[in-house]
Amino acid sequence: MTRPIFIAPICTPFVARLTPLRNVTRARPSSSRRSSHLLAVSAPDRPSTDTASLSLPRNSRNEPWVEQRSRPRRNRKTDGMRDMVRENLVLPCNLVYPLFIHDETHAEDIAVMPGCQRHSQASMLREVGEALALGVRHVILFPKIAEDLKSNHAHECYNPDGLVPRAVAAIKERFGSQVSVWTDVALDPYSDQGHDGVVSEDGNGDGGCGRILNDVTVDMLCRQALCHARAGADIVAPSDMMDGRVGAIRDALDADGFTDVSIVAYTAKYASAFYGPFRGALDSAPRATSRAPQNKRTYQMDPGNYREALLEASLDVGEGADMLMVKPGVPYLDIIRALHDNTDLPISAYHVSGEYAMLKAAAERGWIDEREAVLETLLCLKRAGATSILTYYAKQAAAWMQGSRR
Ligand code: PBG
C-alpha cells in the first residue's frame, strides 16, 4: 500500500537530479581543465608520483573538493543540530521494569542476571519507589512459586491470597495510580511441568509426549487474569501464546466489571533461547520429568517466521488487545516494525533476560561501554516501533537518562 506513494514523489525528482550531475562529473575532468588544476597546486600538496591522476579536483581555495551538493553530515555537525533532527528519543516513561518476587523476607541475588534480585515484599516496594523517583512508572511482576504449590493445572495461579495478588495490592496501596502494575498471565511459574499450559495425560504429542491443552489452559488464564484484576492490576499481559486467550480474558474481565483493565498481548512471542536466565531465576523451564516436550515450540512461535506474527497480530487486535508485544527484542526488530506498520495499536518490546545477560557479561569484562550500549539498544527498540520497552535495565537506564543527551 505504501509502495506507489513512496516511488512517485521521491524517486522521480531524485533520478532527474542525478542525471545532470552525473553528466557534469563525467564531462568535467577534461584534460586541459584537470591539468590546469594540478598545475596550481602548491608544492607541498603536489603528489610526488603519478598518483596525480587519482587526486581530487580543487575548489577556488585550492582545497580538495568532492563535488556534491548534498552533504548529510551538515545535519550532524553539532550537538544542537543532532538534538534537533533526532527522530526518536527513549525516555524513562517508555520503560517497564520487570521485578522478580518470592515469598521470603529477604531479597536474593540472581547470579545469571547481575543487578537483578528475587524480591521480598519490602524490597520490591523499595525498588518500585526508586524506579518511580527516576520516572519509571510501570512495573511487571514475575513470581517464583514454592515447589509444593505447583501442579499441572496450576491452580495456585488464581489464589486470591497468592504471591502476585498480595504484591499487586501492596504496590497499589503504597503508590496508587502513580505506578501501573502489570501482571504476567501464564501458568509456567505455577506448573509442575514447567509449561505455560496444562499438559494432557495422553501421549498424542510430538514423540509420544503429552500436548499442551489450549482451551483448558485458557480457562485457567481467565481465572488468573480476573484474580490479578481483583487485586488491583492495571494491566494484564498474557504471555502464554494460547489461541483465543486475549478475547476470552477480555470477556472475563468485562463481565466482572473490569472494563478499565488493559490487556497487553504477547502477540509475537518466539520460542527463544534468550529466555534462559529468566527460567533459571524462576525455576520455570520445562521439566525433564514433564510428560510434554522440553521446549515450548507447540505454542511459542518459530524464530524463522515473519508472516505468522502478522496473523497473531490481527487476531489479537480483533480480540480486543490494547497493546501488542514482541519478544525477544533486539533479534526481532523486523517484527516490531511489522506490527507497528500493520496495526494501529501501541507496540511493546520485551528486552529479555538473555539480552540483558549478554550486555552485563560483556560490560563486566570491559568489552563494551555498558551505558552507551544499553541506551543505544533501547533507542533502537523505540526506533523500530516500540513505545514501551520492558527491560531489566529500566531503573539503571532511567538513572543514566537523567540529564543525559541522546
Ligand atoms: C513465561 C515467560 C517467560 C518470559 C516472560 N514470561 C519465559 C518463557 O516463556 O519461557 C521471559 C522473559 C525473559 O526472558 O526475560 N510465560
TrEMBL record:
Gene3D superfamilies, per the entry: Aldolase class I
PROSITE patterns for this protein: D_ALA_DEHYDRATASE
Biased composition (Basic and acidic residues): 60-70
Any one cellular-component term (Gene Ontology): chloroplast
UniProt protein name: Delta-aminolevulinic acid dehydratase
Pfam families in the cross-refs: ALAD (PF00490)
Keyword Transmembrane helix: no
Pathway named in the protein's UniProt entry: Porphyrin-containing compound metabolism; protoporphyrin-IX biosynthesis; coproporphyrinogen-III from 5-aminolevulinate: step 1/4
Membrane-spanning residues: none
Oligomer status and interactors: Homooctamer.
EC number: 4.2.1.24
Keyword terms: Heme biosynthesis, Lyase, Porphyrin biosynthesis
GO molecular function per UniProt: porphobilinogen synthase activity; zinc ion binding
Cell compartment(s), UniProt: Plastid, Chloroplast
Top-level class of the enzyme under EC nomenclature: lyase
SUPFAM superfamilies referenced in this protein's UniProt entry, alphabetically: Aldolase
Reaction catalysis annotation: 2 5-aminolevulinate = porphobilinogen + 2 H2O + H(+)
Family: Belongs to the ALAD family.
